[in-house]
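BUG-402 | component: ligand-complex export | severity: low

The export step for aspartic acid jobs runs without errors, but we want the raw record kept on the ticket for reference. Input record follows.
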Amino acid sequence: MAKKVLKFGGTSVGTIERIQHVANIIRQEKDKGHQIIAIVSAMAGKTNELINLSKKLSEDFNKRELDVLLSSGEQITCALLAGALLKLNIKAKSWLNWQIPILTEGEHANARIINIHVNKIDEFLKYGVAIIPGFQGVSKNGDITTIGRGGSDATAVAFAKLFNADSCEIFTDVDGVYSSDPNNIPVAKKIEKISYEEMLELSSLGAKVMQSSAVQTAMMYDIPLEVRSTFTNRKGTRIFNRQNIDYSKSVTGVAYSKDDAKITLIGVEDKPGVAANIFEPLNKAQINVDMVIQNISSDEKLTDVTFTIKREDLPKTKDILEGNKDVNYKKITHNEKVSKVSIVGAGMVSTPGITYKMFRGLADSKINILAISTSEIKLSVIIKEEDTLKAVKKMHSIFDLD
Ligand code: ADP
Ligand code: ASP
Ligand code: MG
């Protein structure tokens, strides 16, 4: 007998028929004698639908109430799945975040799970299936919180850790992690096993198949994960410790995101403290700056500073820069039609020439690089948004991922 955490994403529970199908998957596991904790997402599209409702009332909807609203999506799935299991004569019970409770810390919409009270559920697992809403919790003062988009993955990992589960399986609408998004890059190949580090880079750089904070927690506590399909029986992708993986390729995957924007401050005074003065107020406003480039401008006393941020932060960033009395510059320009394409691979550490090969490939495809950033196991470039898929496909072919 094993204790299993099974997480079902939005598409997997998107209709009543699919919820019945999930109930059957759980039944098969139960028949094998396993104890099951099922973590569920809102039905596909539900969270966006709720966000849009709030926007109809106000673009600046109260954050506490938004979390109350958004958490309801997962609650609907919980009740429906419990109902479907009961109909199959399987003992099952849904638990709302505050009934457990799942305790969180941090601000609304971006909280973190810090503890889960396990006793009641652990006792119940001896008899039946516990159905848990992903993506949410309750703060110390009793307010409902949500933990960021895609957060049901993080709920699953937190349950796997705190219940000491034997496995944590992420059921989704693809049958594993691919070398790139298989829905847009048809030649992408399924990866049989991948290290936490690579998965973390891929998901932070746009591969939404796993939420990055979930991977981070799994890596921190060494909780092996399996990403697999709700709709086929095929083996999925195992995500685990780097030592257990043999790297035959330098690049494991190519990720991309289209939610970046680039800002350039032209004609900034070139003297000590200027960068600090530019970025300090942005940091205070919790704007995440990604890549930074400083150019020597033709005038020796002046320089240009370019950096990238999330596209949704562009208006706020411009306001802050324009109101910043501590920085003198001639002009601000921005480009919101940019995307970030990244190659990721633990094998990159030991393979020389990867950077050159990537740049050569982009040049051959006539794609202009607007910014570059590197780390030990990833290399990212900012390019024009319209070139995204062309660049991803090119990287795929030159690094033998097709
Ligand atoms: P769920 O609702 O089950 O959490 P998500 O939509 O969050 O599912 O994640 C699954 C989606 O991630 C896939 O449908 C696919 O389009 C996308 N995706 C992006 N990059 C990758 C990748 N490298 N491998 C697999 N899927 C990817
Ligand atoms: N329903 C939430 C979202 O759409 C959480 C999740 O699906 O993981 O972001
Ligand atoms: Mg997801």
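Assignee comment: Attached the raw record above. The chain is about 35% helix and 30% strand.
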